[in-house]
């Protein structure tokens, strides 16, 4: 395949890291300009956004969106990574799970506003990834981070496991949910399965199996508009934005009142920049190369 530009929604298979998928995409599409939005652990499956060409610049805006998951937690064994791939810390028999106690523990997690990330994570501590320090026997103590739980519901309850569906903010760790839920219930346990059902406006229903047979990429403007409000530039505004200059309201055909980042489109619908209003001016946050004629 030739070099591509845009966003491809894929259903990540288990056993591969997000970086593995990116490396395969580079070979498959014949381009080095490939990235992803929203890391998934090797065990996890589901929605992964592959970004091609100029679309790699959209990553921070796409990853800021909420996520929806289906998770399975198994009891009886806890691990250092809080998931099935970690080393066992504790094992003991599982007493019968009381549904009312489980629902009470879920209610605690539904109300959570701060969460301690796993030591085995990509969070940087003094310039090093937390998971690397942990594998060196020096797990860092990570500070709690603000999170938002939009919904958290019990899907099923078995003899020694349960399934949940949840919608959460950026920065939420489902492995930490497993750790905290098991602690509340007083039983060792771990995250045994995870599937991302939605990332922002991108759902599993539109995801292509990996590797895709006949991939269709979402265009750069269409992908940006999934995550951001749009504003339309005049020709002079396009020119100024291309040069990274600050803009005024005169440079826009239409300019909304959104306080956050917006997709700035040219008169032809091409994505020119991601920009933001600052008082009476508008500042370019990320500029995009014009498409080839």
Q: What would you say this structure looks like, in words?
A:
The protein is built from 7 helices and 20 strands. The mean pLDDT is 91. It is an alpha+beta fold.
Q: List low-confidence stretches.
A: none
Give the percentage of residues in beta strands: 25-35%
CATH class of the largest domain: Alpha Beta
- Please bin the fraction of helical residues: 10-25%
User: What is the CATH H-level superfamily of the largest domain?
Assistant: Pseudouridine synthase
Strand tally, please? 20
Tell me the major beta sheet: 9 strands, mixed
Structural class by secondary-structure content = alpha+beta
Could you spell the SSE succession in H and E letters?
A: EHEEHEEEHEEEHEEEHEEEHEHEEEE
Number of domains: 3
Number of helices: 7
The CATH architecture designation of the largest domain is 2-Layer Sandwich
Distance between the termini: 20 Å
| Rg from Cα | 22 Å
Mean pLDDT: 91
Principal-axes geometry comes out as elongated
Question: Within the CATH hierarchy, at the fold level, what is the topology of the largest domain?
Answer: Pseudouridine synthase
């Amino acid at each position: 395949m030739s070099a591509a530009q845009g966003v491809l929604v894929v259903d990540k298979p288990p056993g591969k890291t997000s970086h593995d998928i990116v490396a395969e995409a580079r070979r498959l599409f014949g381009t080095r300009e490939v990235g992803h939005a929203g890391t998934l652990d090797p065990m996890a499956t589901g929605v992964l956004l592959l970004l091609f060409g100029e679309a790699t610049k959209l990553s921070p805006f796409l990853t800021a969106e909420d996520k929806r998951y289906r998770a399975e937690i198994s009891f009886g064994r806890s691990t250092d990574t809080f998931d099935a791939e970690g080393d066992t810390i504790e094992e003991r028999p599982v007493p019968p799970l009381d549904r009312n106690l489980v629902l009470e523990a879920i209610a605690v997690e539904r109300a959570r506003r701060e969460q301690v990330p796993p030591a085995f994570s990509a969070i940087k501590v003094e310039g090093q990834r937390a998971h690397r320090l942990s594998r060196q026997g020096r797990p860092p103590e990570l500070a709690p981070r603000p999170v938002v739980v939009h919904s958290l519901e019990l899907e099923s309850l078995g003899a020694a496991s349960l399934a949940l569906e949840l919608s959460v903010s950026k920065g939420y760790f489902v492995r930490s949910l497993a750790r905290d839920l098991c602690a509340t219930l007083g039983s060792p346990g771990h995250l045994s399965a995870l599937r991302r059902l939605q990332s922002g406006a991108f759902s599993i229903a539109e995801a292509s199996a990996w590797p895709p047979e006949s991939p269709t990429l979402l265009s750069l403007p269409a992908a940006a508009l999934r995550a951001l409000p749009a504003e339309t530039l005049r020709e002079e505004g396009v020119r100024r934005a291309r040069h990274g200059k600050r803009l005024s309201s005169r440079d826009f055909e239409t300019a909304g009142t959104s306080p956050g980042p917006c997709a700035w489109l040219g008169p032809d619908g091409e994505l020119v920049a991601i920009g933001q209003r600052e008082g009476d001016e508008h500042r370019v946050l990320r500029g995009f190369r014009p498409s080839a004629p």
